[in-house]
Specification:
Elements: E1 17-21, H1 25-33, E2 38-41, H2 58-69, E3 73-78, H3 84-100, E4 104-107, H4 110-119, E5 124-127, H5 136-144, E6 149-151, H6 158-162, E7 170-177, H7 189-194, E8 231-233, H8 238-243, E9 246-251, H9 258-277, H10 286-295, E10 300-301, E11 323-332, E12 337-342, E13 351-356, E14 359-360, E15 364-365, E16 373-377, E17 387-392, H11 394-405, E18 413-421, E19 426-433, E20 438-446, E21 448-449, H12 457-464, E22 472-481, E23 485-486, H13 489-509, E24 518-519, E25 525-526, E26 544-547, E27 561-565, H14 572-583, E28 589-592, H15 599-602
Helix pairs in contact: 1-2, 1-9, 1-11, 2-3, 2-13, 9-10, 9-11, 12-13
Length: 605
Amino acid sequence: MSTPAQSTRSGAATAVELLAPAGGPRALRAALSAGADAVYFGLQRWSARAFAANFAGEAATEAVETAHLYGARAHLALNTLLKDDEVEPALAALEAPYRAGLDALIVADLGFAARARVEYPDLALHASTQLNPHGSAQLAALARLGFSRVILARELSLDEIAALQPSGLELEAFVHGALCYGYSGDCLLSSMVGGRSGNRGRCSQSCRLRYALGRPDAAQLEPSRIMSASDLAAVAVLPDLLAAGVSSFKIEGRMKDAAYVGVTTSVYREALDAAVADPEGFSVRPEWRARLEQSFSRSFTTAHLEGRHHEVRSGGRGGHRGVPVGRVSRVDEGTGAVEVRLSKPVSEGDVVHFYTPWGQTEPRRLEVGGDTRITLRVRERVALKDRLFRLSAADVDELGRALVTGRLSKRPVTVDMRLSGEEGSPAELVVTDAAGQSVTVCGAAPLAAARTAPLTAAGAADALGALGGTPFVLGALDFAVRGEVFLPVGELKGLRRRAVAALGERRVAARRRSGVAVRTETGEAGVRTAVSGPSRSVPAPRVVVRLRPGESPPPLPRGGVWCLDVLAGDDPDAVARARQILAASGAAVRVRPPEVLYDAEEEWI
């Protein structure tokens, strides 16, 4: 198994990218603190996650600039199907993020993609998973349309992904988060049941509801979540995805809270780095799985990736069920005391609840922990052998808070500093990042001789290294101050703040675009303008008769066309016979393939 180049955070594309969700500003901060190489976010409109906080107006520009400040890339998900009167507003909404240096646009509407390519020609186009990218012919067509990356359908197996490597496109795959029960981008259940289309970003998650199965001649089964899928957790197969040619590893979760984004991204940051460094010796650390399960889980699966598509269904609770930590071993009905034999240790501050035949009890925060047994006083009805689930763990919650607030950074931006000066001249601070970008700031007044407490290298390191709340961490400090001089700590910190702010602005400015270089209808560079399509004559109407293999053809009106609807699993011989029968009429025969057509099925189609 070959080892890809080590992932790095920079303006240029990397061999391996960890892509994290940013449903809002807090999640954006958490993702970057946790070490994401790139983030993806949506606007208030036209996003496949319409109910996320999202970003509007200047906030979208700020999201791009914040990502660039951290050395990460910013991808904008404008991945719904657009109506005619939405195209121009959507193109206009792109302009500010584009000028800020937006790195990629995630698109599901091919017509809109064509317009965006004309008006923002140097903006990378990524084909959304809503397009259900799954076959070689489809990827070849997307390449011709100007896409540089495809976000693969979640239903593909590792072998099917590997077969797409020759496409020449970057392959992006989901590695963690919610799975759709239907094919990516093709599910109409929410639209049909509740009038809310997933392809317009308004999925009602109808598949998470309870449904009853039954037949007119048989008793109905009890309602259950027969379509609710488990969550994807591909941490164990990261080396296999690397070997299959995946270059971007995507975490789902723009509807999740910021702490979830931070914790999940931090796990995959550690795991992906380990898989890249030693794919053969890679193994899943227990603490990784524990943090993932505790953050959010409906039960985990890699069923699609491993070709076990029938095992994707969870059937359990539609939301976070928590982690099972024990069973009831004794109940004192008089006092309400419930003793639990623990299968996992619990800690003070953990939030737990019981699963009982009568439903779930109210969540409660533990005042004491335990390793093997704990006793709780419970008002609700609880029986022997009922399970205790931990909804949140105090240590995981603290990790999430630290990442959201920026108190902890998994992949900070290292900067070197040089502090110089001597009696009679102002102090000078030079700050340089790993890319070689440098800023210099000077003190307002000359340094004076120290009567007591002269400035030392250790004191300077303490003041200059206090970089909390910024993306930066102090690397090397060159203390080049001559003689014993006095510099108040407040002034030294002021130098640091000015230098860090200036360096941050320089890092952001380096990624901005100076203008909107777009093509006019003549193909020359110019201002952005509406581009009309070529004029076309309207074809004369004609009758198209659709039928399935094996159906008897009805009379075909003069000038009519046959359309043979082929479904996955149809007998190739039956399809061939049907085509011969229809062709014998002398009329044109079209074949309408399935919505999802894998490479192995294309030959007989």
